[in-house]
Amino acid sequence: MKRLYSFLLLSLVLLSYACTDASSRQAQNAPATLPSETELKAAGLATATFASGCFWCTEAIFERVQGVDKVISGYSGGKEKKPTYEQVSYGKTGHAEAVQVYYNPKVITYPELVEIFFATHDPTTLNRQGPDVGRQYRSAIFYRTETEKQQAEEQVKKLEAARKYKNRIVTEIQPYTAFWPAEGYHQDYYQHHPDDSYIVNVSAPKVHKFEKEFKHKLKHQYQKTGS
């Protein structure tokens, strides 16, 4: 009888943990919520969408920029609706890991964001950034207006004229169609997982390089801490 009671008690405890874990996983897997056009208009914010490899690093970089209000990691450039991280990471959707940048154009301009975009990844490697290989890690700018397209193209011409890179820039400049926010656990991943081996070895060096080269564009808190 004592053993039976112990077994039932253990089963209830395990069931409780299982339910808690399932609830936690469900919350973590839920996609982030995008701000509405009404909210953006009220806040005086514009939107830009970029893909430059793993979105953990790209998100962390743009979050440090003066005039940027919010950055959301997600997927863009493909036809699949509501893609999951697993689908995108296996290259099944045509989407790239991307970020949606919500910024105040009175503080920082679109061309300045494009400049930061090019300066913080290698735009000459086709479908690859560092250890990440595949179309889902391609370099891409998703423009919303003809003006944005022209500004992006002008930056490419400027960089190539200055021979900034040894190889040709292969960044795709294509019209924006849709952006699907990534699962909750991907948002602010750099901040929440500083000891993750990928963050330590791949993302952090890029973020620190950006902080050093763009001190004049860093938010105040990052100018002080440099972290």
TrEMBL record:
<comment type="function">
    <text>Has an important function as a repair enzyme for proteins that have been inactivated by oxidation. Catalyzes the reversible oxidation-reduction of methionine sulfoxide in proteins to methionine.</text>
</comment>
<feature type="coiled-coil region">
    <location>
        <begin position="142"/>
        <end position="169"/>
    </location>
</feature>
<dbReference type="InterPro" id="IPR036509">
    <property type="entry name" value="Met_Sox_Rdtase_MsrA_sf"/>
</dbReference>
<feature type="active site">
    <location>
        <position position="54"/>
    </location>
</feature>
<dbReference type="GO" id="GO:0033744">
    <property type="term" value="F:L-methionine:thioredoxin-disulfide S-oxidoreductase activity"/>
</dbReference>
<dbReference type="Pfam" id="PF01625">
    <property type="entry name" value="PMSR"/>
</dbReference>
<feature type="domain" description="Peptide methionine sulphoxide reductase MsrA">
    <location>
        <begin position="47"/>
        <end position="198"/>
    </location>
</feature>
<keyword id="KW-0175">Coiled coil</keyword>
<feature type="signal peptide">
    <location>
        <begin position="1"/>
        <end position="18"/>
    </location>
</feature>
<keyword id="KW-0560">Oxidoreductase</keyword>
<comment type="similarity">
    <text>Belongs to the MsrA Met sulfoxide reductase family.</text>
</comment>
<protein>
    <recommendedName>
        <fullName>Peptide methionine sulfoxide reductase MsrA</fullName>
        <ecNumber>1.8.4.11</ecNumber>
    </recommendedName>
</protein>
<keyword id="KW-0732">Signal</keyword>
<dbReference type="GO" id="GO:0008113">
    <property type="term" value="F:peptide-methionine (S)-S-oxide reductase activity"/>
</dbReference>
<dbReference type="InterPro" id="IPR002569">
    <property type="entry name" value="Met_Sox_Rdtase_MsrA_dom"/>
</dbReference>
